[in-house]
Fold these 4 entries.
Entry 1:
Amino acid sequence: SPDRGMISPGDFIPLFEQSGFIVKLDRYNFELACRWMRSYLDAGNPPLNVAVNVSRLALLQDHFVEDYTAIKNRYRIPDRALELEFTESVVLDDDGVFLDTVVQLQKNGFICSLDDFGSGYSSLNLLKNLPIDVLKLDILFFRQGTDVTRERLVISHVLAMARDLNIRTIAEGVEEEDQVAFLRRAGCD
């Protein structure tokens, strides 16, 4: 903003959610990602994975899977090249709807990830019941707490469970070399 400078997403995303505009914004960003990827691939570049956030309201729209699949197909995006990121709060609202949606998205060639794991009311039950492809650990896991040994023990076990469940893991917001070294030793993808 010319008057207020940079405005944090934490300030405007809740307004978009309240008004329902977030659904249009999600779809617009998804289409932009597909358009960019098509251009990138047409230029002869090797395939890569692009992740796009999806809000709770967008996920709950009628024909969500069909609409996103149609956009993906219109741009001829290869299967398993697009990742849709859902926050754990989406799952907590209705895990049955989320589970069905994830299964349908995967059948249509999408990678599905659970973003910001550990930022709210994370439940190991989520890992047990959801067929997600990727678990993204929130930066809060890596903020130095009072006991680094306990912190790393929890992270190690979450990573081990995810690995045993064939879920890839990504640590977000890691800034320190010792954290990177620890995560590599612990098996974070």
Entry 2:
Amino acid sequence: HTHCFCGGSVIAGNHTSHEDVTYTAYNNASSLKQILKSDDVIYAYLTNNITLDSLRLLESKTLYLCLNGHRITFDEYQVTLNNNTTLYLCDCTTEKTGTISRSGGKTCCVLVSGENATFNMYGGTLKNGNRTGHGGGVNVRAGTMNMYGGTITGNKVNTNEAHHGGGVYVESNKWSGVGKISISGSPVITGNTRAYTDVKTG
């Protein structure tokens, strides 16, 4: 399994050439989580749909993840990027059916929460995130999100704040964190919702 790290067009993102890299196959949750504990840089592609409780990148880890048309379903938490971590997400298939989704609970699909954490989205779909608060698809609490492609859809938040973002939320509070986002290329962010929660005061 070889392709450029973006998994797609040379015009996607901030690189100008396609040098193939070799990805290693992962077909179950335990093998994918185990490799994240040992190697600092991982090129992984899926050969099956898998279910995870969470996927947490520890400090200084970099994960290149090609969904390869498959689905990762989180049944408890989400992908979490801590300090000095980087996630490159792509889907090299023609059908573009690779998906990261939530099956229950109240969390986003991807949480960018660490200093110098970076989420580079080249492909794949993030869906069914469901938070009480903000950022149903992606919550950029700190760090940076660069979206060059892919789709964020079908996510929601339950909040009384209009700016809390069913699809993507980027924190801009100097006390709790400051995130950054850059969007270019041809990504799709659509069909995300905010359900109004009435806050009672007594």
Entry 3:
Amino acid sequence: LLDDTAPAAVKLTATKLGLREASALTGWNFPIAGVLDGTLVADGQLGALKTSGKLTLTGGRLPLGWSGSALTEVEATVSFLEQTMTVEKFAGKHPTGDFRAMGIVDFARVRDPLLRLSLTSERTLLGLFDDRVALGVALDLTIAGPAGAAAVSGEARPLSLKSSGAID
């Protein structure tokens, strides 16, 4: 799979697959959790995969980078058709707020997929000025373009503002 022309074939059928337990089979202790149900079939060259299927994640925990931050209580449903993944539902909690997303990921260019996603949050806390100011906002955003250079647009409506010290 290091080459876009290498053939690949994957058929996954998951029935109440525990992600924490499945990840332990690698010998690593990945900070991931949740239960996966559904099917995914992918066949063809990496640069021209043909996919089908639908996967549902319940009670998920997905790490965000190496900081220890994670989305928790993730509930998601994604479906696959040809070279498109449709995010039918994605909801999760983060210490800064609750988030929901839906849309399409077109992976015809698998190394830099095309995103067309909407992201919403009824309330998110943003830390400003070294976290001395907490700004609460409602988000209604669109993420569009290649993943490596996606544009983010939309609204961030202010809901609250708190200061915990002097701002230099």
Entry 4:
Amino acid sequence: MKLSYNWLNDFADFKSIPFEKIYEKISLSICEIDDVSEYREHLSTIVSAKVVEVKKHPDADKLSVCVADIGTRKIQIVTGAQVAEEEIVPLAMIGTVFPDGKEIKEGKLRGVDSFGMFCSEKELSLSEEATGLMKLAADTKLGVSLRVLLDSDDKIILIDNKSITHRPDLWSHFGFARELAAQLGIKIKYDPFETEFLFS
């Protein structure tokens, strides 16, 4: 079973306690943890960038030499994608590693230096199809990671299903949060079973 740490926090304020203690409490008092992974970790080094200059590549008709502003500095990018000045797009910085293992490195395209890559939703693993670069809102703050912009800053806790076979009350985010809160002496701040639903 996979648990979203952010989702657990919808039910109780676990972020007031160091995650290491949360991990320890689950492992020692509730069930086995198989793994903890960062959700969409590759988005951490992909930031919002405004395209401030687009010029034709001197030696390649299908390439453009662009200047991207990430708020703190400007970066030269060579791209084959269609992009226009003033657009805000995702920029994968040097060192970004995508889920398929592809790493962004400093390089040259037809003799011109490039220091990153503009991205489509498909390249970001956010969509199976893409017709072009992902476009961000015009008022998007520059230099912010997509992991933050897309509210993907989360940990995924992988639980050994066999260790909770006898505990069906733990087979949901709320059930698990309720048990963990009791173990830590934290109050539940939202109980979906006590919420009144109004139907029109």
